[in-house]
Amino acid sequence: MRKRPIVLVVLLVVAGGAALAMQHVVRARQPAPPAPPPPAIPVVAATVTSHDVPIYLQGVGTVIAFNNVVVRSQITGQLTSIDFTQGQAVHTGDLLAQIDPRPYQAQLDQATANRDRDQAQLANAQANLARYTPLAAKGYATSQLVDTQKAQIAQLESMVKSDEAVIENAKINLGYTRLTAPIDGVTGIRQIDVGNIIHPTDPAGLVDLTQIQPISVLFTLPEQNFVEIQQQMAKGTLTVMAFSQDGTTELDQGKLDLIDNQIVQTTGTIRLRAEFPNAQRRLWPGELINARLLIDTRTNGLTVAASAVQQGPSGPYVYAIDSDGNVQMRAVKISQISGGQVLVDSGLAANESVVIDGQYKLQPGAHVVVLQGKAAQQASQQSAVEQQIP
Questions:
Q1: What's the pLDDT tens digit per position in 77-111?
Q2: From residue 149, how far is each of 114, 138, 140 by CA, in Å?
């Protein structure tokens, strides 16, 4: 009788174990639940825009003065005054310095006196001829006397003419005692001080005078652009813009006025010259600038922020965002970069959204969330910091 309860207990244990085993087998056969999708990657995006885009040819240029003059004395003398301030803007005819005029005034006075003397002698000779001529007609004077008097008059007339030339030369030299500005421009550093003797042979002269309004820029472009530039010049005047060396600040806008008459074979470039009004004096002789020659305008050109374009083994590409918020790697062809924008020839369409910041976290097919406003600014700053960390 005691064996029956023990058998029942054993049977119950075996049945429970079998049930647990079956439950484990059933659970093992059920598929594991899917892994949760990776979180969306935050990025900053921009839209591809379509508008008329100016096409520029860009080259490095040097600012040169429109005119540059070393003001030198044409006579020798002592400087008695300096009448300009270094760095001053002057106009044509403005007095720059004064040379002691007294020696040259004395020469003029002496030449004038010599002329007056010779004129008096000429007048007397002419009066004598007027007396001798009727006497010779009556036989009271010889013809030789009349001829001699005529020769004397001719000699005196020549002397008077010589005196007039000496006077004119003396006046010119006296005028040279006033050193004046030959052009409008800006004075440089003075090379000589008051009290010194100035000479025509002084290599540095008195001062260097530079005309900066208008001003010129010489810049170079690849010789492959020569034909295109020449064709566009035939249609009308071409605009040239001068930018700072970093390309961020526009300094002035001018016109192309010259293509050099030969190509520089050593560099394969053509030199061009543009003229700028330089009203704000942002262009200065010797300054290096970036020159942009407006060659054409692309109608309905596609542009996007330059930061959207990445460089890969096969060339430039962008991450385009589809309607589901996933990114696709898209190869693009670019024709120019200007003002932080790239002109896209192929690979994108108008109004498409592309990633402009955060690309280093992306893989093709990744899901993204586009940040806006202040969050986008903060993400851009954080991205710049992270990319700088080695």
A1: 999 999 999 999 999 999 999 999 999 999 999 99
A2: 21, 17, 15
Only one residue has tokens 């890969």, namely 312
The tokens describing 154, both together, are 């001719």
The pair of three-digit structure tokens given for residue 18, joined into one six-digit string: 């079998």
Band (368; pLDDT cuts 50, 70, 90): confident
How would DSSP label each residue in 310-352?
EEETTEEEEEEE-TTSBEEEEE-EEEEEETTEEEEEES--TT-
* pTM of the shown model: 0.68
Q: Where are the beta strands (DSSP E) in 265-287?
A: 269-276
Residue 309 · residue 48 · CB < 8 Å = no
79 neighbors 187 (Cβ within 8 angstroms): no
**DSSP alpha helices (H): ranges in the chain?**
3-29, 102-138, 143-175, 226-235, 373-388
H-type helices in 176-247, by residue range? 226-235
Tokens 């000699």 correspond to 155
- The span from the CA of 345 to the CA of 31, in Å, is 50
Question: CA dihedral in degrees (333, 337, 342, 344; nearest 10)?
Answer: -30
Residues whose CB falls within 8 Å of the CB of residue 286, separated by 6 or more in sequence, listed in order = 62, 63, 64
Residue 277 half-sphere exposure, CB side, CA atoms within 13 Å? 4
Q: Residue 316: which of 302, 305, 330 has the closest Cα?
A: 330
Q: CB–CB of 329/317 below 8 Å?
A: yes
